[in-house]
Amino acid sequence: MTYPGLPDQQNNRPATVKPGVAVGILVAVIALVAFCITGFAAPGFLLRKGPGLSLPTPTSSPATTSSPTSTTESPTSTRVSRPRITPTRNPATPPAQGVQVIVDFLTKIAGSDKPGAIALACEVQKRFMDDKIDSLIPLGSRVQVTSVNGTSRFVLADVAGVAKGRSAKGIVISDLKADGGFCVTTFSIRTTG
Fold it and tell me: 13, 72, 76, 175: which has the fewest C-beta neighbours closer than 10 Å?
């Protein structure tokens, strides 16, 4: 039924966006967001990579500076190299007592004195030392300290010699105890030959 003077009311559906248009808008928004993220995350990607960009060349011999330097490898690529920073502080000399505990430990191993070697270990490590000695540096092994590093609280000694009848090298570490003495914390010795 229609009334005169009123518009036809058969098509009263609300206006909707067609699925194709909605997908197109969504793809455009995702592309725009990806472009913006990439533009901020990798700012150089928007720059032209041709010969239009030139880097300044040094006019004299390069001086040591703390800023990065650039070198041009070809007209289309640039490599930035960072300067090496070398610490100028003097390393601390490891305490002689910490080194001596390591030497005594290795002497006990060479003399087949397993209880004496285990006695030089830190309390929390003693229960592991028996098996560790058997597997890594069996009694009778002749291993000596070759160099030492460390601080006032620990000593790390590089060691080398003969274990299991073959050439061996590794490390032994001693730590400062609460009473001021040192004890062997751990060691790792591997045969190399």
Answer: 13
If we measure between CA atoms, which residue out of 145, 134, 191, 193 comes closest to residue 172? 145
Chain length of the chain: 193
Percent share of the chain, pLDDT over 70? 61
Q: How far apart are CA 73 and CA 70, in angstroms?
A: 10
The distance in angstroms from the start CA to the end CA of the chain is: 105
Task: Give the up-direction half-sphere exposure of residue 139: CA atoms within 13 A in the CB hemisphere.
Answer: 12
Asked if 78 and 70 touch (Cβ cutoff 8 Å), the reply is yes
Which distant-in-sequence residues (6+ apart) come within 8 Å of 67 by Cβ? 83
Instruction: Give the tens place of pLDDT for each residue, 26-56.
Output: 888 887 777 766 666 665 555 555 555 455 5
CB atoms within 10 A of CB 109: 26
pTM of the predicted model as reported, rounded to 2 decimal places: 0.53
Give the number of other Cβ atoms within 10 Å of residue 11's Cβ.
Answer: 6
- Cα R_g (the chain), whole angstroms: 36
The two structure tokens encoding residue 28: 């455009």
* Tokens encoding 162: 């003969």
Mean pLDDT of the region 162-184 = 92
- Does residue 54 contact residue 70 with C-beta atoms inside 8 Å? no
